[in-house]
Design goal:
Elements lengths: L2 H22 L2 H23 L4 H6 L2
Helix pairs in contact: 1-2
Length: about 60
């Protein structure tokens, strides 16, 4: 499997797990869910940004 697919899948799962944890537990532990959701969002961004081709988009302008 390619790297960007792994990052997007892992990011999506971490985001989903973090949001569920945040909703299901009390406040002190909910901060861990928020942190996990932010990590997941970051992984999604890295995975997607790794596949964007900025040079091709500049050439078409």
């Amino acid at each position: 499997m390619e790297r960007f697919v792994r990052l997007v899948v892992a990011g999506g799962l971490a985001l989903l797990a973090g949001l569920w944890i945040e909703r299901l537990v009390s406040w002190p532990r909910a901060a861990l869910g928020v942190a996990l959701a932010l990590v997941g969002l970051s992984l999604l961004g890295v995975g997607i940004a790794g596949e964007l081709d900025y040079e091709a988009s500049r050439a078409s302008l």
